[in-house]
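Hi L.,

You mentioned the student needs an example of a multi-chain input paired with its predicted structure. This one should do, with 492 residues in total across all chains.
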Amino acid sequence: MDFGRVFSEAMPLLLEGLKLTVITSLVSIAFGMIIGLFVCLMKMSRNVVLKAISGVYIWIIRGTPMLVQALMVFFGFPQLIQMTINPNFRMDALTAGIITLSLNAGAYLAEIYRGGIMAVPKGQSEAARSLGLSQGKTMWKVVLPQALKFSIPSLVNQFIITIKDTSILSVIGMAEIVNKAKTYVGSTYVYFATYAVVALMYLVVISILMIISNYVEKKLKYEAKKGKRHRDEH
Amino acid sequence: MKQRRGRGTVTNINRDNKKVIVTNLHKYFDRNEVLTGIDAEIYEGEVVCVIGPSGSGKSTFLRCLNKLEDATSGEIIIDGYDITDKKININKVRENIGMVFQQFNLFQNMTVIKNIMMAPVSLKKMTKDEAHAKAMELLARVGLADKADSYPGELSGGQQQRVAIARALAMNPDIMLFDEPTSALDPEMVGEVLDVMKELAAEGMTMIVVTHEMGFAREVSDRVLFMADGVICEQGTPEEVFDHPQNERTQDFLSKVL
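Structure written out for the whole complex:
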């Protein structure tokens, strides 16, 4: 089945791709979380302009496929910039890939945060405001920590999607796993074994993420449960 | 310390200092007029209970006093600040007005002691050490010193509400607002919360209490306001309102709840 061949010939290539996949995912998730937070706060603000900007951003990202977004960021916008501002403008695939993934994750994460914030009872922020805390401090100290806790399952879901979406970036020539695999397959025609190894690599990475997230969730749940058990005993 | 009120006993009221002056307060929710012209004055050290049927606007009135609800029109001067003035720094005013909610609203993400310390520390009223000492003192006062490191979810309703009172007191407020503080409690826990409130009243705190506890209102308050349909229909000492109600609405309400 050629597994031996893939392991000996393609493994260094694929591991290199895996490294890029993991790095791209981590960086994009980090940027996406920050972008998402700002966009979420903009969307929930009373300022009409901020609200509109964030609304349009989310609308565009959710309304177009990531493949098209990646093509736009890598080919489309650079061409536009070359024609208008700077004829020597260049963007490498890695940068384009991270921008695409971050912007994409940011839009979805914004909505996930928003859901989490809305799940925090209004009384929590009223109590903080009644003590004299500003809206910002109330958000930062009381609402967001609780919102984040509510959001964890959806956040993890989005992280998984982002990791898998790196594979789409193979079309703009980013040398992540799928791109490397395609290169190898192109010259050797070892389809099954190569793609099976690729699939396995994604499974391993995502399994690690799931183990971590299960641990975090269990820890948080334990705190909540500890309270409930106490109450039931009384 | 002066002996607390009840009927005819000495009270802590300072008639020279009006803590709350409400003039012609109106409040709309969309097109629904909830408060239809409220005038009220509350003195320093006075304990005022607000009673009345549900939907009469009691809670809305109380929430207007610290601007959790915006007044649609009228004037509210509390603690010397006109909070209907758009330029007022409401956060500064709120630092001196404690509020206790029906649903306790303890911060679920913090332990009991952090709940109490959070506002004084993050508003730079106290250092961490000072706030910790103050919080422990307050917890001892409400009988929960051993719960300092518990999470709100580990406490009974009555305990949570006592922590909520301690949290409000940590800011050293001049005025305390209570929004049906015992309505969400199991009956056996009502007493422990009311006891803390009684002590607070005896110490001379200015208190405005929206309540359905008629016994508490009768025993502790200097004055009872009866609200119906968004106005104060009748007010007076507990004896006047409970024993000799003049207004038909008051008579009708009391005949149902007493």
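You could point out the following to them. Chain B is about 35% helix and 25% strand. The interface with chain A takes residues 66, 68, 91-95, 97-99, 101, 103, 105-109, 118-119, 122-123, 150-156, 164, 167-168, 171 of chain B (CB under 8 Å).

Best wishes,
N.
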